[in-house]
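Quick check before the chapter quiz. The format below is the same one you will see on the exam, so make sure you can read both the input and the output lines.
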Amino acid sequence: MKADTTRRFLALHTWMGLLAGMALFVAFYAGAITVFSHEIADWNRSGAAAVAPANPVARTQTLLDDLLKKHPEAASSVYLALPGEHGPQPSAYWIAPGADTARRFALDDGKALHEDAFGQRFIEYIYDLHFTAGLPKPFGTYFFGAVCLLYGLALVSGVVIYAPILVRNLFALRLGKNLKRLWQDSHNAVGVLSLPFHVVFAWSGAVLALGLMVFVPFQRAVYDGKLLQLTEQDFYGAPQLAAAHVPKPTLPLDTLLQRGQAALPAMTIEGIWLVNAGDANARATIYGELSQRRLSQMATVTLDAGTGAVVATVAPKTMTPGMVFMRGLQALHFGNFGHNTVKWLYFVLGLAGAFLFYSGNLLWIETRRKRRQAEQPLRTRVMAALTLGICLGCVAGVSAVFIAGALVPAAAAAPVYLSVFFASVLWAGLRQPTHAGHELLWLCALLTAAIPLAGWVGSGEHLFAAAWHGHWHRFFVDAVALLLACVYGRMARATLHRGRTGEPNSVWALR
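Here is the expected output.
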């Protein structure tokens, strides 16, 4: 390859990586954690909320009846999550007309209806953080869609640059005094070895974030406003009906669930979505998983909620091509296949991806170091402050959200995260880079090490007791938190050592 071509691809790779890197650090760090979102949700449950009801369907029916008495308008569309993977207690989700977020309802210990702010439980907030970086919806989602496009350009240009020396340098991890070369080798090795994973994420992230925007030009120009109607089966499992405004009793949940189970006997039911409950055009769509040799395991049974007649069934082997594409893409993005083996693989690769973007920024800073002068360019000092503040602020903020979720489960997660995040960005801007990196890394280490302690206080069960009682979700969350805290502490010491003994003409030097 010509030297000029290589320089062009290097410039493309550098600037696409810089523009997208810090946002992608947040997405990958939060995404690695939310791979285990259901398991982490069990980590801070205690008391009656952690105990499954004796009759799950009856309790779900009580929840539905109480919700419709208090909010009759919820009959238009309500989703009921059954006890199981989503928690030991049933939950109801309803989006009020004109609202852009769902409202969640559950029964308290005394079987009284109460509302939780959906998206404010700590794990749900971290899940949203993965898609929005803390920015308001839907702007944050569209922003990440654009970031994924830049991410794809950085991947392509990186492969073009590294391909000629791939075999010779793939496993070359040259240890020694040249820290830049070590970081370069680590960055290249992580990037190439996890390349298929990153290709999937760049592609699926862009489609999932910007997919609806792709429909817009076709909706009017090609399909005369009927495109969404044509794709209803792909999204909902069956075409939707408008309310007839003719009262008709809806069958009890146990009857609807029995009919759905009879239609797909091997399906593990997770929830049921009711539309137009109490109306002649009421529909019930039962969602679950059906183990078949397909990427997506999702299955649905749509019933006439008044008669129990089966309207449509969807199984992994009978999905339309559009549904195969959409559900398969979701499964690839979230790791919803292969069970725990794939989840742990996605967790490790997610953290490795965060390291990839962090190390890429450090390499840019080091490459532009002025070796013959003590004062470094303003742009490298600004980039160092932003990299430390945003990346380490994200790590510290997520750990703080875990602590708040354990100690005060009803507290809103957003103020906790944003306070720690912006305080870290401000601190990185005010302090010399080595001091800021050293101090923020210790903040990350201390907050992350406090997660098991907060879980102990909140649940009354420490790490070793959780292992003894077989509460493995709690044990592994605490154990991984302690392991990461040790990593952050080691990085803090290395940062200070680099400042004291490394190259004197650098933004990382202590002068």
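If your answer matched, good. The mean pLDDT is 83.
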